[in-house]
Amino acid sequence: MVERPKISLFEHEKFRGAISVVIPCYNEETNIELMINQLRDLFGEYIHEIIPVDDNSQDTTAEVIRKLAIEDSIIKPVFRLPPNGVGRAITDGYRVATGSYILSIDCDFHHLLPELRDLFDTTAEGYDVVVGSRFSRHSVLLNYPLQKIIANRVFHLLAQILFLRGFRDLTNNLKLMRREVVEKLKLTQPGFAVNAEIGLQLLLMGYSVKEVPISWINRSPDMGVSSFRLIKVGGGYLRVLLRLWLRTVFSRQR
Which of 69, 97, 198, 247 is most enclosed, with most CB atoms within 10 A? Predict the structure, then answer.
């Protein structure tokens, strides 16, 4: 087997050693080591620390993470206690991050890692927050479930109407943010709805938010099974929408 040469996509000196990467993990034993290795290969000069957050996985994810942490001090794992929830995992990861910028990314390789370069390029222009958008005009979706597309677009349409703002995809976990911005978030959602809570809060707090198109590829069976359940998580998204809208209305009245 021929080993491929490692290619670094480092370009912006201002990000050298400045990025905390937060990766929520649940049953990702087949993905986490490869994810961390590719992040180090492509963007190693940027990375201040990698924070894999094991959310009480039922496979060997925790053991894999412990082994990687012993081998490299840049890996600073978080091992959660029950109850589970991706929202809780992301919140715990944010809480311990110490880099000047925080990159939040899933562990399932839905996104092409070289495309993270676009997030760094855009952040270097001075934006507080850059979101990888799955639904921009130049985004590429491969095998994205139709029901999830419909639910996502309905949610964003409602949010655009309620908040009178224009945006396409603030609910993706792929975000690059200044740490001071993350510290202002007030996160309450235990599940996937935390992604909507984060995206909408950032916009409503007045930070400069920029969406950049990215690709999204559905995971294959050998990469594990997603824990996302549309009916189960839909209520959480609607609760976030209603709560933030009511807060905005009352703030305007005051």
Answer: 198
Query: 97 and 182 in contact (C-beta within 8 Å)?
Result: yes
Identify the segments of the chain with pLDDT beneath 70: 1-4, 219-231, 252-254
- What string of DSSP letters covers 156-189? HHHHHHHHT---S----S-EEEEHHHHTT-----
40: domain CATH number is 3.90.550.10
CA separation, residue 193 to residues 18, 51, 93, 120 (Å): 28, 21, 16, 25
Model pTM above 0.85: yes
Residues whose CB falls within 8 Å of the CB of residue 251, separated by 6 or more in sequence, listed in order:
none
Residue 162 domain flag: yes
Q: How many domains does the chain have?
A: 1
What range does the domain containing 42 cover? 14-253
Neighbours of 63 (CB within 10 A): 12
Cα dist. 151→70, 146, 155 in Å? Answer: 42, 9, 6
Tell whether 1 is covered by a domain: no
